[in-house]
Each structure stands twice: as structure tokens, then as C-alpha cells.
Amino acid sequence: MAPTGRQRIPSPSHRRGPTLTSHRLPRLPGQVALPEQKSAAPSPARLEGFNAAPADAVVRALLTCCRSLRWAHRLADHRPYPDLGALLAAADEAAYDLTPADLAEALAGESLTLLPDGAYSAAHTALSAAHAAYESRFGHVFVICLDGMAPDEALDQVLAAIRSRLTNDPEEERVITAEELRRLARGRLTRLVRHFHVAL
After folding, report:
1. Residues with Cβ < 8 Å from 118, sequence gap 6 or more?
2. Considering the entire predicted model, what is its pTM?
3. Is position 33 within any domain?
4. Residues 26, 44 contacting (CB under 8 angstroms)
């Protein structure tokens, strides 16, 4: 894993506009941040399929993990990977090397954290207000990785995290946001490779 000091983060902004990119990425699935439990490592055959698939198909799939085109192309271009550990290490390295524009692009492609099924209406109201306050302060959507957390604890964790992070200064919050995006990408990538399939 590359040292934390290698992270490069965007300049301060309090407006939504600077986080948007000059081009639109395609609408893709896989933006939900809620965890999957007991994730097993992908079989060698699955990783072999990921390594052998056409580059454009792999890039499209990788964009469901992190919406940075540079991140996705870098991982696709450096195939083949001998195992999941090598792939995740490469994903971490690519995440640490995101430029300010890359990070803004990735953030612009993120959606709000979804509540578990059955969450009461007051929770939706509270979470919507917290997201609005966060976006107004920092100029981009709130992101958090909930992998490994029980779904019934997700709401309290998200609300507590937003309220806590609202007290950060913009520089500190950008570092935390970049780290959460890296963790989200790792979890999504693990699940992607486990279920990877391309019809040839």
C-alpha cells in the first residue's frame, strides 16, 4: 500500500459546480455503499476471466467501482494480475495517485448512501438533511464505506459520520473522502471480480 502522504487532493471549493466534469460517464450499476457480508475471494477462474476480457468491457465494469476514467484505464491496462491481492494493491496505488480532477470526477459519479429496507420515514428526513448540510459545506456528495457493518447499524453510522465530519475543515475532509473512496473501490472490486462475466 502506498503511504498516505502520496494522496493528492483537490483545492478547496464550497460549490457543487467544480466537482462536476466536462463529460458525463455512462449510467452504471453498483453505486450502493451498503456492505455485503462474508465475501469470499474470487476463484482463479474468475480472475482469469477478468484478465482475459476485452479492455473496453473491463473499463466499463471498473467504472462501477470508482468513477474515475484514469483509475479504470490504469487497472485495465496493467492486466494480467496473478491474484486478488495484486489487483487490490494496484487499485490502492491507482487511488492514491488520483489527481484533483480525477477525484472530483469520481465524487461526481457517486450517489447518496442508501438506507436499509424498512428504515422509518424520520430516518430518511434526518439523512436527507445531513447530506444537504454536508454538500453545502464541502461541495460534493458524502461518501463512506460500510463494508463489514451490519445493515441495521448502517443508518446510525452514516448519520454519526456525517455529523462528525461536518466539523472538519475542507482540507481534512478531502483526505478522509479520498480514503473512503479508496475503501469503497476495494470492496466493489472484490465483488466485481467474484461475479465477473463477459459474454463473448
Report:
1. none
2. 0.73
3. no
4. no
